[in-house]
């Protein structure tokens, strides 16, 4: 808009700037990376990590270790938002000047880019970084015709967090089957032990398809299935419909979460006392901050007293909070939840592939994998999953992860997510639409997008 | 910016033949001296013409070419693109959903442009008649509303309308007693979604209209108004029969810009969609093209359709403007 408004003044100026900019560019380009060198030239490489899933401690470790192992080179970590990641990668990865050197990508988005040829072939690195021990579902998501283009980074299984004190006050026990879970959520909401306004037994916002999918998967349904060389939407299948009926019951009776919200930051209402349960990846534990436990410690403060207060705060939060893996159809088994997680890859257009590989080697070494596990993420190499520990969080995470299932491995699955078809669908279900009708329409849209 | 480097420098536009008779026949030397000056004028156009050609012409041409190809992510990474003729256009124009998006966009654009113009003109007239202090306050407020980045403004409005923690719902429920509105979802129904979007878009575009129209109003000579008053014209008559015709060119340009801007509105709609609205039911042209971006060729075709639509909507204004310039 501004160009039109101020064109008379701005354009000649822009012209001059544009001309000088182009001239500068032309001069510097030939001095680009030198491919003939045997040891990689020292350079700055860029790693794109998404969201805040990778804790700061791990980021610091990466930059320091990388600088130590590659003298003269530096690693810059740029945090990207999960929202709108696909279009950003579409443009950045296609450009030699803008492409980062290593990218984290959602496991559901990896196939699209692997098929498009956006990532360098890592097949020769595969054995070296773990081979068969790597999470195989994620390896498949990053492979095309037997060649590996994107390696697993981590997996985050979803578990249910609950307020233990509210459970007790409402006389609700930890559910052992999926049906019991719904009953528990409804009972908790009806009891509303603290009399909170707009209280939700289970925090379940309308667009939360990550959690809604668990009911579809557990009842044996699917989002889409391959028939011959065509993909068809599977939300209308009787199994999926069974799960969706349960989902709708939860939406109507067990939650007061807004229908126009997604699964972002479910701990906010939980910390506010407005929800008795929420379901999220297990690292959500570090975001729980109940007001009755908050000691008001300055996060920058590293004095012994501050550390002590922080420990007391964590212990208090843990005491008020319980966690369990969403139970399955029969007692003693876990539900098939949606496996969230990431792959990691080197873009074809990376100007420093050697250095990028060196970074991957650091990330797949025992030390870093252990650090991932210690922070509640299920590491790419399952050998190191022991470091998750054996507290209730680790147990819940592992239970959930064992049965977890990825989204359909269709080449253009990322487009389904990009078009937000599932957000729209679950919102319709939350809003009281007939699940069968909504499913039929969404199945049609999914098939249109995938084929 | 490889595009900039590879684009050939456009040939200079040839200066049109002078309207004046041949120099030999011309009386006196005045005309002869004007010719080199004329050439200089065209030379001065070059710096402006180059960025326009590079910045607008190149993407436009490329979009047009892509719209006749099959061009997706794989082509972006080097696979050759296939020519598909009019396939993309046929696919889009035979889809009733696309026509729905077009109809919604046109309606949204006209309503918003009309509202913005009405409010903007009213405030401009108000600013002309109030005292200095009030005018300054208005101007500063207006500048702030206009100067705040779109994304910041949109985010604030989105928080105001938030269903759980939003101020609007709280105000409606607590002081005003409409308890049913305490947790109302503003974004979930397309109609109220567009209402919120309209509030944001109008909020951000009114200041521009006010300032421009106000500048126009200052050009209306006081003597003319005084003479009309002496002739017994009422305030209403003076406004509609003298002021409006006199600032008509300004109004036309502003209205034209409003229509163009409101037709291609993107940021406000996109942010609101992300805040929890049903995406498919709330697409306007801008966000719909963005959602097609997985398939660049389809997005290119849709963008071309939108360009034609914009030209059709504004054709009347443009023709009129060109005619007035000729006179």
From TrEMBL, chain A:
The keyword Ion transport does not apply. Residues 1-23 form the signal peptide. It comes from Actinotalea soli. It holds the Pfam family SBP_bac_1. This is Extracellular solute-binding protein. It comes from the Bacteria. InterPro entries: Bact_solute-bd_prot1 (IPR050490), SBP (IPR006059). SUPFAM superfamilies: Periplasmic binding protein-like II.
UniProtKB/TrEMBL annotation, chain B:
Residues 10-21 have a biased composition (Pro residues). The chain crosses the membrane at residues 39-61, 97-126, 138-160, 191-218, 239-261, 296-318. Residues 102-317 form the ABC transmembrane type-1 domain. Gene3D superfamilies: MetI-like. InterPro entries: MetI-like, MetI-like_sf, UgpAE/MalFG_permease. Its main location: membrane. Pfam families: BPD_transp_1. Keywords: Cell membrane, Membrane, Transmembrane, Transmembrane helix, Transport. The keyword ATP-binding does not apply. It comes from the Bacteria. Residues 1-31 are annotated as: Disordered. GO terms for cellular component: plasma membrane. It is found in: Cell membrane. Coiled coil: none annotated. GO terms for biological process: transmembrane transport. It is a multi-pass membrane protein. PANTHER family: BLL4140 PROTEIN, DIACETYLCHITOBIOSE UPTAKE SYSTEM PERMEASE PROTEIN DASB. Belongs to the binding-protein-dependent transport system permease family. This is Sugar ABC transporter permease. The lineage of its organism: Bacteria, Bacillati, Actinomycetota, Actinomycetes, Micrococcales.
């Amino acid at each position: 808009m501004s160009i039109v408004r101020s064109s008379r003044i701005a354009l000649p100026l822009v012209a001059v700037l544009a001309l000088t900019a182009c001239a500068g560019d032309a001069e510097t380009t030939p001095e680009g990376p030198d491919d003939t060198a045997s040891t990689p030239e020292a350079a700055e490489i860029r790693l794109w990590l998404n969201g805040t899933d990778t804790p700061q401690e791990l980021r610091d470790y990466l930059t320091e270790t990388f600088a130590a192992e590659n003298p003269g080179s530096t690693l810059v970590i740029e945090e990207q938002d999960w929202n709108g990641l696909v279009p950003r990668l579409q443009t950045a990865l296609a450009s030699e000047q803008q492409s980062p050197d290593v990218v984290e990508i959602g496991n559901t988005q990896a196939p699209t880019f692997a098929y498009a040829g956006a990532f360098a072939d890592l097949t020769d690195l595969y054995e070296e970084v773990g081979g068969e021990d790597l999470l195989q579902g994620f390896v498949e998501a990053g492979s095309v015709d037997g060649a590996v283009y994107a390696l697993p980074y981590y997996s985050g299984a979803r578990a249910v967090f609950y307020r233990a004190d509210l459970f007790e006050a409402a006389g609700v026990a930890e559910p052992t089957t999926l049906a019991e879970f719904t009953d528990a959520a409804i009972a908790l909401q009806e009891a509303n032990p603290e009399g909170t306004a707009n209280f939700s037994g289970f925090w379940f916002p309308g667009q939360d398809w990550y959690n809604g999918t668990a009911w579809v998967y557990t009842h044996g349904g699917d989002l889409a299935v391959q028939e011959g060389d065509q993909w068809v939407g599977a939300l209308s299948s009787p199994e999926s419909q069974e799960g969706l009926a349960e989902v709708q019951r939860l939406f109507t009776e067990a939650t007061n979460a807004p229908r126009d919200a997604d699964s972002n930051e479910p701990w906010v209402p939980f910390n506010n006392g407005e929800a008795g349960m929420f379901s999220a990846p297990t690292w959500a534990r570090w975001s729980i901050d109940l007001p009755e436990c908050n000691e008001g410690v300055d996060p920058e403060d590293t004095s012994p007293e501050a550390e002590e207060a922080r420990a007391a705060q964590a212990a208090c939060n843990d005491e008020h909070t319980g966690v369990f893996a969403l139970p399955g159809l029969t007692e003693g088994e876990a539900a098939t939840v949606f496996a969230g997680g990431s792959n990691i890859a080197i873009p074809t257009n990376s100007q420093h592939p050697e250095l990028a590989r060196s970074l991957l080697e650091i990330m797949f070494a025992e030390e870093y994998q252990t650090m991932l596990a210690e922070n509640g993420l299920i590491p790419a190499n399952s050998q190191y999953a022991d470091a998750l520990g054996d507290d209730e969080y680790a147990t819940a995470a592992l239970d959930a992860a064992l049965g977890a299932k990825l989204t359909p491995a269709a080449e253009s699955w990322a487009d389904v997510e990009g078009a937000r078809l599932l957000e729209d669908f679950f919102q319709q279900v939350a809003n009281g639409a007939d699940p069968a009708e909504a499913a039929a329409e969404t199945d049609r849209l999914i098939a249109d997008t995938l084929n | 910016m490889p595009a900039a480097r590879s684009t050939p420098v456009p040939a200079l536009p040839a200066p049109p033949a002078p309207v004046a008779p041949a120099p030999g026949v011309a009386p006196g030397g005045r005309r002869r001296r004007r010719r080199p000056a004329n050439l200089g004028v065209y030379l001065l156009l070059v710096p402006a013409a180059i960025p326009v050609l590079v910045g607008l012409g190149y993407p436009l041409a490329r979009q047009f070419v892509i719209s006749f190809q099959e061009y997706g992510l794989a082509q972006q990474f080097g696979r050759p693109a296939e020519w598909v003729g009019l396939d993309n256009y046929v696919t889009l124009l035979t889809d009733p959903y696309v026509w729905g998006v077009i109809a919604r966009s046109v309606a949204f654009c006209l309503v918003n442009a009309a509202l913005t113009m009405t409010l903007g003109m009213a405030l401009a007239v108000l600013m002309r008649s109030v005292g200095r202090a009030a005018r300054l306050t208005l101007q500063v407020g207006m500048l702030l509303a206009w100067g705040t980045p779109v994304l910041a403004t949109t985010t604030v409005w989105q928080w105001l309308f938030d269903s759980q923690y939003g101020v609007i719902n709280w105000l409606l429920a607590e002081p005003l007693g409409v308890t049913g509105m305490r947790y109302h979802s503003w974004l979930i129904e397309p109609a109220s979604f567009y209402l919120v979007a309209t509030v944001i878009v109008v909020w951000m575009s009114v200041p521009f209209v006010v300032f421009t129209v106000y500048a126009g109003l200052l050009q209306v000579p006081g003597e003319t108004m005084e003479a009309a008053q002496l002739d017994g014209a009422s305030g209403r008559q003076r406004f509609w029969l003298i002021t409006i015709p006199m600032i008509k060119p300004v109004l036309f340009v502003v209205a034209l810009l409003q229509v163009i801007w409101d037709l291609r509105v993107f940021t406000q709609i996109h942010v609101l969609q992300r805040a929890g609205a049903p995406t498919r039911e709330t697409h306007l042209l801008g966000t719909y093209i963005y959602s097609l971006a997985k398939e660049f060729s389809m997005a290119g075709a849709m963008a071309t359709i939108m360009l034609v639509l914009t030209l059709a909507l504004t054709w009347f204004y443009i023709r009129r403007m060109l005619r007035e310039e000729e006179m």
